Target: Fermitin family 1
Amino acid sequence: MISSSEYGSHSWELLVTVDHQHEEVQKEFLLRVTGDLHIGGVMLKLVEQIKISQDWSDYALWWEQKKCWLLKTHWTLDKCGVQADAKLFFTTQHKMLRLRLPNMKTVRLKVSFSSVVFKAVSDICKILNIRRSEELSLLKQSEDALKKKKKKDKNSKEPVTEDILNLCNSPVSSGLSGSPGLYSKTMTPVYDPISGTPASSTITWFSDSPLTEQNCSILAFSHPNCSPETLAEMYQPRTLADKAKLNAGWLDSSRSLMEQGILEDDQLLLRFKYYTFFDLNPKYDAVRINQIYEQARWAILLEEIDCTEEEMLIFAALQAQYHVNKLSLSSEAQDFTCESEVDEVEAALSNLEVTLEGGNTSNALEDITDIPKLADNLRLVRPRKLSLKAIKPYWFVFKDTSVSYFKNKESAQGEPIEKLNLKGCEVVPDVNVAAKKFGIKLLIPVADGMNEVYLRCENENQYARWMAACVLASKGKTMADSSYHPEVHKILSFLKMKNWAMSPQAVSDPESIDMKPECFVSLRYTKKYKSKQLAARILEAHQNVCQMPLVEAKLRFIQAWQSLPEFGLSYYIVRFKGSKKDDMLGVSYNRLIRIDIATGDPITTWRFSNMKQWNVNWEIRQVAIEFDQNVSIAFTCLSADCKIIHEYIGGYIFLSTRSKDQNETLDEDLFHKLTGGQE
Model:
């Protein structure tokens, strides 16, 4: 019975459901509360009424109707807006989650369902020993991929049992703060730069973590490729619209898992979302490098990114390096620590550095009074709609960020035939090493779209110099910039790899090596060539990399992936303000590209370096961006929530503020300020 004095007060009954495992104890409790009672007081009352002796420290109140956590324990019920009709759940903040890693392995671990996703991913990466967690995020699988998986499971005669690595005993998983040792410069596990294995003296640092030597090996090493049949059963995007579906499921980094409808033991994908891999170091990053390599490998095998036949053979040869050599690594090879090999790994790493405009690039070498220039004979190709392409030789001069061309060298002192300003243009390689074709495709922004121009070079060295100059000019940089010579070196290195793929070598009999070539290439090439033909071509290319250390092979693979024209582009279907048809928007680390959804041709490019501000009208879900020179665009996103694109832009701006002299702590408030938006 309730006394009359209690009825006279402003008290009311609040229903709370408790998520506990004791079957003999009731789960629903009625608490008599008042509006000025704080959340901490509600939890205290509840625990006293439950009368179960256990640790309740990880429990918090979840408000089902509002889809939010009540974590500010000093706030009163009135301040939170909780009234008698509220349904509250008293449940654990850390719950089990299954994560599909880039290497397609599934791990099961405890994750905070009450922290924002940005913080949850940071904790996950501490468990997995992946530095730079800000580059990753969580992704819901696309509906088409799920449908294909269900169809596969339905057609399978045997029940599918997934091999899951259980990491639920980690200190971070248990809701405790993770040991800072894995991020500490002095306590970070060191890996062998040749084989990528953790040094035996440091593997003991994993003793408090679920990353035992065996588990670390699962995450840091590549494993046998899947069969062509398995590959055929996996979802492969066929069109740009299909590729847009792959990027629709990114979770909101500023909200918790529970707020976004994720339930205990659900499966999510952990992926590198931002394609700016900062400060890669084989001494500390064996897991991180392997997972980037695996994400690249699967993107190529499933044709999420396009590549030519030459490029596919390069990727196949570098994968075959694992298949053929990994198990046969001799003890001498494992003990081999020749400095030249380590230097090669370091050189490959220097090519992987991707810096954004606005980042801290060194300008010490730039002498404004003497900016270098290129001058050479090249051929100009202008596509014509109703006739053959016109190919003519001219004398070209590249200075600052512009290319001018003249009838011949002698007339270079006068006025040019045309001057092309490359700032903000799209630069696409048009190369076929076997056919000795070294072309540069330039898509130059003009008032009504993009002006298409091709430059044809005579040889590899000329191509590398001019291509590097074009790439820098598109970013508004000159050849005086310190990144020019590394860019030339990177291009020459990639062309050298293409030569591997095409140069005939003395090859072992393909039948004498246990290799399924179909495992190393996408289905398109499996259908085009017979198995023996593929094996012979892959082994030809492999002869050039068979002495390469495993870690360097991975880094070369990543470098080749980064050299593809489509690298780092995330696609979304949008409708621009004032347009009557849908377009594709490509979001990259340094620019936005408007693409014709039917042909795949770029229409316009806008660089982040020219962006003044961006915002979202949350009522009509429209993203508006303002650039220099009074250029403004606005669009609504049709294939995903506009918050995803808003977060992508802010995320890339945030990542451009990183520098090597910083410690590895991140300004989380700045990230949320740039990506959170005001809904």
